[in-house]
Amino acid sequence: xxxxxxxxxxxxxxxxxxxxxxxxxxxxxxxxxxxxxxxxxxxxxxxxxxxxxxxxxxxxxxxxxxxxxxxxxxxxxxxxxxxxxxxxxxxxxxxxxxxxxxxxxxxxxxxxxxxxxxxxxxxxxxxxxxxxxxxxxxxxxxxxxxxxxxxxxxxxxxxxxxxxxxxxxxxxxxxxxxxxxxxxxxxxxxxxxxxxxxxxxxxxxxxxxxxxx
Length: 213
Known about the structure:
With 213 residues, the chain is of the alpha+beta class. It has one domain (5-208): Roll (2,3-Dihydroxybiphenyl 1,2-Dioxygenase, domain 1), CATH 3.10.180. Helix content is 17%, strand content 43%.
């Protein structure tokens, strides 16, 4: 999430080198700009209202890039660490999100049992064709709000958001926002992982081929 869209656009387009796809108004004075990154969407949410500063568990985003020969760390205008790596470096062919966790066993249950992903290494999970790596940091501080400056949440796409949200809550994970429809575009919900990180569970019409109720 950003307040300065102009600086963010220059960073993602010219420094990172990902392609701008489109924008959507998502309410509350927020406009979502979407960039394509190796089959994954990087969503830059531009808020007209001043954003709070709040802890986040998301420590780094790694993106496979043909712009670099060696791993290169850059920082977006909000200070988020973006690491550009050669394609295939450390197994990264698309993107990898680096999360902090103080609860290694529970975070593994969340991603494997809850989200249905494959643990390819200790606390490293294959989410579709992207990677999520959870690094044990005992003093991890959970976020207190979803809308604040910087790297705030991840999104997974499902075919039935109502069913998946109910299943995650039944498994004991915290439901932060029950499913709601965003017009005919998507039906979304939010849950929180064991460290308080926000995960959007989304049913997007363009991906499922099914109309949004």
